[in-house]
Amino acid sequence: MRNILCIYRRDLASYFTSPIGYIFIIVFITISVGLYITSFFSFPIADMRPYFENLPLILCVFIPAITMRLWAEERKENTWEMLLTFPMKASELVLGKFLSALTVFAISLAMTFTVPVMLKSLGNPDMGAIIGGYFGTLLLASCFLALGIFFSGFCKDQIVAFVVTLLTCLLLFLLGTSFIASYIDDKLPGLGSLFSNLLGVFKHFGSFTKGVIDLADVIFFLVWTVLFLVLNIMYIDQRNRPGAKMMFTVAVAVCVAIGLMFNFLMVGTSLKRFDLTEDKIYTVSESSAKILRQVEVPVQVNVYISPQESMPTAMKDLEQNIKDKLEELKISAGGKLNYKTIYLDVSNLFSDQEEMFAQEKKKNETEEETVERRLLDKGVKPFNVRAISQDEVTNKLVYSSIGVAYKDKPEEIIPQIVPENIQELEYRIVSTVYKLTRTKAPIVALVAPKEAINIDPQMRQMLQQMGQQIPQSEDPYVYLEEILRQEKYDVRRVDMTKESPLPEEYDTLVVVNPRSFNDRQRWEINRALRSGKSVVLAVQTYEWDYRATPRGNTISKREEKPEINPLLENYGLKVSEDILMDENSVTLNVQGGGDLMSQLVGQPFRLPMHILVTHESMDQETSITNRLSAVFYLWGTHLELNEQKLKELGLNYKPLMFTSEKAWTVPGSEKLSAKSFEPPSLTARKKYPLMVMIEGQFPDAFAGKERPAWPKPQPRPGEPAPPDDSEPEPPAGNVEPKPSKMILLGCSEMFRKNFLQAGNLDLFLNCVDAVSLTEDLVNVRGRKPIDRTIEKPTDSQKMLWRTVNYTLSNAIVIAVGLAVYFIRRRSRLAYTMAQIASAESNR
Asked: Distance (Å, rounded) from C-alpha 339 to C-alpha 302?
């Protein structure tokens, strides 16, 4: 160890006693951090994965620059033989040089600390994923350093050592990319995937960037690092022995064979995984395990997939990834889940009918020749994916579906499992199991208005001439109904009117965009809450009309008048009538305008009513919002909470979503001008609640009052009132008061089909699941990476962090370099003066 430390200190000092070490560090910081910062502020996300994904290519150039001098310079300066005469073993020399080079790189990597500091200051990064990325980078660098030291031992010229190492590192990097692997597979099927598994470093590096440390990937880098160091030791130790070249050639072949054989055995295996992410999103959740363990008999999961050789290169690992996830679920389920793989061939599905008829008559008919057609009725169908063939991007049909069977119920099919949605597999399987095992589907009464369509007279005449039916209305909330049905809810779409009343039995009432509610409709909601039924209420107070004209853009306000506040005020709640604005907003493209480009692409409107609610503005403890991505809160208003009245009523309330702290309001009665959209001073801005959940025994807002009658139909202008021929309603029965839940939002526009993006859709499903089912299912749906979008930084923040990232670390390196220079200079001067004084004293 003493000899290793001696060489380590010698070589490490050689980096920092000359400008070369400092130049290396400054160049690495400038390139790696600069590439990340250049695009960071265009769409700021508190995530370092883009940074780490750029590093392998940067290291292909940076690492050879560190290692090229380690042995080549010893040869050039004729210190090679002198160094080998020291009473040191070859292993001590190699390890000392390797550790010194690794230290230089570790210092360079540590000087990128400004990036995680910036992300922590501006947003909420996953520090576990960042630590995993740094750890993986050190392992990758160790492998490249060992390779560089190995080649440096052969070369007398540093440039030759640099070029050879550079080309080898690039080769190992490119072999791990899907593009190169696909290209090779197209020429020689299977070869590109084999090279990617055995030699491709990028493929083994990817899991570290996600915050997952797989022991198989760690061993991959350690094995190649050790093998190259061993080869370097053997080359130095046997350089002058008889037959050294032959022995070394054999050693190289044996070591490479060992490395390739080891990697071949490790392909597709996962010895042990460590999930460093904040919420262990790559580990089966306790909620999933709880749901699976509660089933009465084991669940059977069938994987319907094309064989690996029939898959495109980018999907060859898909089967193994699915099996890994199913194995984790099987272990967590405690024996309540089994799975098997069924291979399907697309050619059997589309084979000629006569050939199929002939094959059916043969006695040796195989199951694969008929199973594809038999599974079509179940919903197991092939789908198109992209593949490279004949140097072109083509479409290829493949199978990749999962079937979930429980008892004697029909098998539920989860279609189109691809690498992009593999992270959602846990939720899709567990939610399917949960819905198969429940005795009865929850009944959801969905109240969402349809809108009348104003059709141009010429278009109406054209449709009549073509014999087509003229649409009378449009359903802006049709996707909500479809999605709830896909989630296996029993959905009853009603208008909550006399002609379309609420069903006699239901579990949850979902009211989206109530319009001009009357006393009877408010009474129905009050009765639902009083009787213990859950209610989700999304209210829209204002909508806006945008017009892009050749003369400019115009906007106008349209009031919706939901008339729901007379009921909510009895519970200490109110949907504000003020116009809500927030500096954290997004651009909305509106079709129209004078030129062709505006009509095709749309005219951008950037207004403070287009509120973007980020993850940081949501409650982190409630399952409904703790894993949500950003939500587009379009034209919504805030909620007013009478906390004193809520406490007097004994209702538990919890705000789940807020604006940013840069929000402000404008009175709804105020006449708007351009100045209304300008943000006031910071002291006049604050955050406002947008969503609240209330639990407890709701009071009867109609206590002591008769049940309101349904409004009578209004006559048309100039016509007499129609007679009321309806039969009198039977008296309303008494309901037993029970605790219930209500989720109130000040926006419903975000649930329209035009704006039902990922975050808004998850919010809607989480609300319905949380009040209708169990929070376990909501927790499972949240098992995905959080959208860590950062609220729009100010110009001063951008300037500050650009300056910090570009200059701080470099300034520290330069300062240390200058300090070392002046300390060494002073030491040399002191030594010189001491020698002069000694010489004069001896005269």
From this structure: 6
Percent of the chain clearing pLDDT 70 (strictly above): 87
Cβ burial of 79 (10 Å; 0-12, 13-18, 19+) is exposed
747 within 8 A of 633, measured Cβ to Cβ: yes
Separation of alpha carbons 489 and 824, rounded Å:
77
Beta-carbon count within 10 A of 213 CB: 20
What's the pLDDT tens digit per position in 802-820? 999 989 999 999 998 888 8
Please name which of 393, 518, 506 lies closest in space to residue 446, comparing C-alpha atoms. Answer: 506
Of 584, 593, 591, 638, nearest to 611 (Cα)?
584
Count of beta carbons in the 10 Å neighbourhood of residue 754: 10
> Which tokens is 444 given?
């959801």
| Dist. CA 206–CA 129, nearest whole Å | 11
Write down the pTM of the prediction: 0.73
Contact predicate 34/43, CB 8 Å:
no
Taking Cα atoms as reference points, which of 802, 792, 611 lies closest to residue 43?
Answer: 792
CA atoms within 13 A on the CB side of 729: 12
Phi, psi of 162 (to 5 degrees): -65, -45
CA distances 840 to 765, 832, 835, Å, are 91, 12, 9
pLDDT-wise least confident of 68-77, 102-111, 236-245, 378-387: 236-245
Structure tokens at 120: 């922590």
The contacts of residue 539 (CB under 8 Å, 6+ apart) are: 513, 514, 562, 564, 575, 637, 744, 745, 746, 747, 748
**Pairing mode, strands 603-613 and 585-590:** antiparallel
Q: What is the spatial distance between Cα 496 and Cα 792, in angstroms, rounded to a whole number?
A: 42
Q: Which two tokens stand for residue 190?
A: 């299977």
